[in-house]
Amino acid sequence: MRKITTKIFAILAILIVSLSYAQAKKPTIMVVPSDVWCNQNGYMMVFDNQGTTVKIPDYKRAFQENSDLLAVISKINGLMAERGFPLKNMESVVKTLESESAENAMLTSKSGAGVVESPIDKLKKVAKADIIIQLTWTLNSTGPKKSITFNLQGLDSYTDKQIATATGTGAPSFSVELPVLLEESVLAHIDNFNVSIQKHFDDMFENGREIIIRVKKFDSWTGDLEKEYDGKELSTILEDWMAANSVKGRYNTSDATENMMLFEQVRIPLFDANGKAIDARGFAKNLQDFLKKSPYVIPNKLMMKGLGQAVIVLGEK
What we know:
Residues 1-22 form the signal peptide. It contains nine helices and 14 strands. β2 and β3 form a beta hairpin. By secondary structure, the chain is of the alpha+beta class. It folds into two domains: 27-205, Rossmann fold; 208-314.
């Protein structure tokens, strides 16, 4: 009897671990209206960025004024939640950002290695979602019947690479409720869409998340990336650090001069030893600390663009 009980507990433990593992592997998702939808519906802000006209989505006004947007995103959120995907609510994230600086401040360029952040970059940093689903839809009318043409784009929030897509038009229906029309249109496509998202996330879980790291220098710094430490150039030291700290040593040196280096396709773990999610800033902070220590003792400044791009500028803070 004791042996049977022991076996039952062992099986239950395995099941619990397996379920926990499966849950941990689900990507976190945030559904957002696409730039196209915002532009078509008049929810854009226009700025003069050093002589160039720039249009960016006005998400806050869109949520405050368009009840259809709330209903449609809620419907997609519900469909994803039914399939086990954790969700970040965009409306809540937008409210969190209300206390931040005005959107036009994000488009003011800085000298040197200043980085521009768009509203979607700021949303990503607050939400920290793995996948962004951009949603575009159009309401069609054929006599008394209506249908929805939709486009879903799944984007890796760290790289902005498209990893899943679904598009189609639902059958004409007498229903006048937009969420119902959308559900009828999307249901035939959403499972294949989710398979693509899950496949991408499984690859990240196994091989690491992809980010970009740039290393630059301030003009005031007398050193450069060809400066030698113990007979080894700084550029080589940086590559050695990338090889040692990226997942399976996977990274690509896309460009390198005496004044800058560009590391792309840098694979970083999804979580640290404490189970905390790691983004480009967390990974780059380790490199920043490495360069501050002996024998290099290089003061440097860390700047971010969204979740997936970090810039380290050598020579000053």
